[in-house]
Write a structure and sequence with these properties.
It is globular and about 90 Å long. Helix content is 29%, strand content 15%. It is an alpha+beta fold. It has four domains: 94 residues, Sandwich (Immunoglobulin-like); 71 residues, no CATH class; 105 residues, Serine Threonine Protein Phosphatase 5, Tetratricopeptide repeat (Alpha Horseshoe); 245 residues, paralog of FGE (formylglycine-generating enzyme) (Alpha-Beta Complex). GO terms for molecular function: formylglycine-generating oxidase activity; protein serine/threonine kinase activity.
């Protein structure tokens, strides 16, 4: 399952928003938010007007659409955009038209919206009777060709070019405003983590809404951010009023965390139970039952009500998955993944051995899913294309060159091993016959990159702790992670990786000697990641197309036993890089875009014309089925979201 959603921008002309419905819905109604857009922006049409486009903008992929028309005319097309064709005539002077769409996601959850407008008939001219001819008209003489009319004006687009430049400037300013808005959202979220009153937190979100009240005409993301702020305000308005206190003495560092008051826990439980009744089990982010029950159990591990609800959510997900397995395997897969998200937490929280056996049973049920996928064609074992001695750019038939024996480099700060990835070109994306491919892997396109250094392994918990001072990992073996030094760090957001890199680069700057250029680090771009993963191959996995061999190369659903594993235990690719398939998803630098149209061909990160609130992750993880581990598979998550299956691998900046 690819978590979250993808925003569709489908319009035939410049999008002018008229009938809008922005929805934040429960898991029952699928976290589908959508807008129905009429292009151009009209309330009334005339019969002699051209056809119009009605489209849907949504935040989830793999949706199905059912369109309905009430009124004269007809709809043409299908999918997220249809064309409304006006009738030739009306029975009355005007008519009302209603166009409705029902959107369904892979889990079978639906949302219905509609738009309305009127059609008017142009006035009918009074007919006049032509006089009868009195005699047979003489034939008209053949017209003599004449010269075209002269004009003092020459053709020019200068004024339109100026208008286009102005439009680009306006769009750029709105993009900057959206980035500023997202940064402010993160600032307020950090502010509310302080031990301060709910009134101050509410005031911070209200100020956010006041400053960013203007509607962005180019995206729905600003609407979502305002909606998020409003949800935060409602949450803190419902929280108990606790007067802030001033500590007169500094508690010792090893003092236990003060227990929350009973009223605080009861408030969390009440809110969690409300989300539970709405079936907001795992969504929306940070406003769901699971998140609040975890909060309760962190402070009150023996809380029976929270534990019961945790198991209730697991049971509902599993039951729905089993009911869907035969007819809707895609939906079943999503529901099983949600079950595993909660079950892996519960197994660790409650030390329940029976639950460990149930997880194994669910994993076996997932393996048996008869998910329809593209039938693979017979393909030979992967071969590395020989290195060309010429310095010219490789052709399509001669993709990535085989590297010479890799020159390893170890960073002087953390002792991380890096492998040199040679310059070359490759075909990014997947062919139509690849098993498990998704539409966001289109179109296949050639990318040519300069050589770079990439981490031979994923960043470990010990390395992260040395830089950040703490180990956030879900699978840390001890509270401070001291027993899990060789395991990949996880439960980190994209924003967390930026803070890690900032501190690591500062340490590298301090460690450099006079006259020496400082070593700097960054995330790999999406193209760099896929190129390094393929290691000169063009097959589904870097070892070939046979997923049955994955157990030798990756930790995933079949063999991970619901947990991460030490780095470097599976077989590497041809360039000596480990764990590119499985273990944890790896954050990349790119912002998310659902297509490769307009993607950079030089290996750089895609930031422009992409959703910067969502960031790319690659490689698959411990709880995924084989097709999520393919070299070409793409995934995204919110940049501030943390998850036990999200980790990182870094590259050395040139």
């Amino acid at each position: 399952m690819k978590v979250g959603a993808r925003i569709y921008h489908i319009a035939a002309w410049i999008t002018l928003f008229s009938a809008l419905a922005v929805l934040s819905v429960s898991e029952n109604a699928a976290a589908i938010s959508l807008k129905v857009v009429v292009n151009p922006n009209v309330a009334t049409l005339k019969l002699d007007d051209g056809p119009i486009i009605v489209s849907v903008k949504s935040q989830e992929k793999n949706l199905t659409y059912r369109w309905e028309l009430s009124g004269p005319g007809r709809l043409q097309g299908q999918g997220p955009a249809v064309q409304y064709l006006l009738p030739a005539q009306l029975d009355a002077a005007s008519a009302s038209v209603v166009i409705a769409v029902t959107v369904t996601n892979q889990a079978g959850e639906e949302r219905r919206e509609q738009v309305e407008f009127a059609i008017t008939a142009p006035p009918t001219p009074t007919p006049t009777k032509a006089p009868m001819p009195t005699s047979t008209p003489e034939p008209m003489p053949t017209a003599t060709p004449t010269l075209p009319p002269t004009s003092s004006e020459s053709f020019s687009l200068e004024d339109l070019e100026q208008a286009a430049e102005q439009e680009k400037r306006v769009r750029f300013e709105w993009e900057k405003k959206l980035q500023e808005m997202d940064a402010a959202r993160a600032q307020v979220q950090a502010y509310e983590q302080q031990d301060i009153s709910a009134a101050l937190k509410i005031a911070a979100w209200q100020r956010f809404l006041a400053v960013f009240a203007a509607n962005n005409p180019y995206t729905v993301q600003d609407d979502e951010l305002r909606q998020f702020a409003q949800e935060k305000i409602r949450y803190w308005q419902a929280a108990p009023s606790v007067a802030p206190t001033i500590a007169l003495e500094i508690a010792p560092t090893d003092a236990p965390m003060p227990m929350p008051t009973r009223s605080e826990i009861e408030t969390w439980l009440a809110q969690a139970n409300e989300y539970f009744e709405k079936t907001w089990f795992l969504t929306p982010e940070n406003q769901n039952a699971f998140a609040l029950y975890q909060k309760v159990l962190k402070r009150d591990p023996a809380n029976a009500e929270a534990k019961t609800r945790i198991f209730d959510m697991m049971e509902q997900y599993r039951q729905k998955a089993e009911e869907s397995a035969a007819e809707k395997p895609d939906r079943a897969e999503i529901l099983y993944q949600r079950y595993l998200t909660i079950a892996m937490y519960a197994r660790k929280q409650f030390q329940d051995q029976q639950l460990a056996r149930e997880i194994a049973q669910v994993q076996e049920e997932m393996r048996q899913l008869k998910r329809p996928k593209t039938t693979p064609t017979a393909t030979p074992a992967p071969t590395l294309i020989p290195t060309s001695k010429a310095t010219a750019k490789p052709t399509n038939a001669q993709l990535a060159p085989t590297p010479q024996p890799a020159t390893a480099w170890v960073d002087p700060i953390l002792g991380m091993s890096f492998v040199w990835v040679p310059n070359g070109c490759f075909q990014m994306g997947s062919p139509p016959n690849e098993v498990g491919r998704d539409i966001d892997e289109n179109p296949i396109h050639e990318v040519c990159l300069n050589g770079f250094w990439i981490g031979q392994y994923e960043v470990t918990q010990a390395q992260w702790r040395r830089v950040m001072g703490e180990n956030p990992s879900f699978f840390a073996e001890t509270p401070n992670g001291s027993g899990s030094s060789a395991y990949p760090v996880e439960n980190i957001s994209w924003d967390d990786t930026q803070e890690f890199l900032k501190k690591l680069n500062a340490a590298a700057q301090s460690a450099k000697t006079d006259g020496q250029a400082p070593v700097q680090f960054r995330l790999p771009t999406e193209a760099e990641w896929e190129y390094a993963c393929r290691a000169g191959t063009q097959t589904a996995y870097y070892f070939g197309n046979d997923a049955a061999q994955l157990k030798e190369y990756a930790w995933y659903l079949e063999n991970a036993d619901g947990q991460t594993h030490q780095i470097g235990e599976r077989r590497p690719n041809a360039w000596g890089i480990y764990d590119m398939h499985g273990n944890v998803w790896e954050w990349c630098a790119d912002a998310w875009n659902e297509t490769y149209i307009g993607h950079p061909t030089d290996g750089s990160a895609r930031i422009a014309n992409a959703d910067e609130m969502r960031r790319v992750a690659r490689g698959g993880a411990l709880n995924n089925l084989p097709w999520f581990l393919r070299c070409a598979d793409r995934h995204w998550d919110w940049r501030d979201n943390r998850n036990f299956a999200r980790g990182v691998r870094i590259v050395r900046a040139p």
